[in-house]
């Protein structure tokens, strides 16, 4: 088990390999299809610094945050998967979700020394490992707003790294 602390360094991201099991601790971003296009717009406009965090080295979890907890959504939804390359270019090092990514996305991860990890859909387990949460932006989206949560030992498996995927045959 590889223990990762956020923010994730370039060296730590470069060392991750497909199939590695990791536990992530620290603050991570949470967003899915409703908020990711808004976040990308902030990056394009140069206003992402208004969030009050540095995107470099961050982790983004493809999820909504609800009273029931958090659980991964499918990362290969158009609005989510299309955000992976520009978010990686902006400094995101680890994308958490579920599902198979397209080859082009896996190659984009490699270009920006970023990785994708699949996380088991076990809401109760993840809820017990989430110690803080707050809305960072777009509160009008409710549970699909951009959240920042603090986690302790979140389990995941590296699903795509360095041009390879666990889904490759």
Strand content: 25-35%
**Residue-averaged pLDDT, rounded?**
92
Weakly predicted, low-confidence segments: none
Say what the CATH topology is.
Answer: fumarase
Outline: globular
Q: Label the CATH architecture.
A: Alpha-Beta Barrel
How many DSSP-defined strands? 8
Distance between the termini: 24 Å
Sheet with most strands: 5 strands, mixed, barrel
Helical segment tally?
5
Short key terms for the protein model shown above:
globular, fumarase, 169 residues
Topology overview:
Blueprint: E1 2-5, H1 10-15, E2 21-30, H2 36-45, E3 59-61, H3 78-89, E4 94-97, H4 103-111, E5 115-118, H5 123-128, E6 130-137, E7 146-161, E8 164-165
Parallel strand pairs: 1-2, 2-3, 3-4, 4-5
Antiparallel strand pairs: 2-7, 5-7, 6-7, 7-8
Helix pairs in contact: 2-3
Task: Please characterize this protein's 3D structure.
The structure is a single chain. The chain has 5 helices and 8 strands, in the order E-H-E-H-E-H-E-H-E-H-E-E-E. Helix 2 runs parallel beside helix 3. Strands 2-3-4-5-7 form a 5-stranded mixed beta barrel. The protein is α/β, with parallel strands linked by helices. The chain has a single domain, classed as Fe-S hydro-lyase, tartrate dehydratase beta-type, catalytic domain (fumarase), CATH 3.20.130.10.
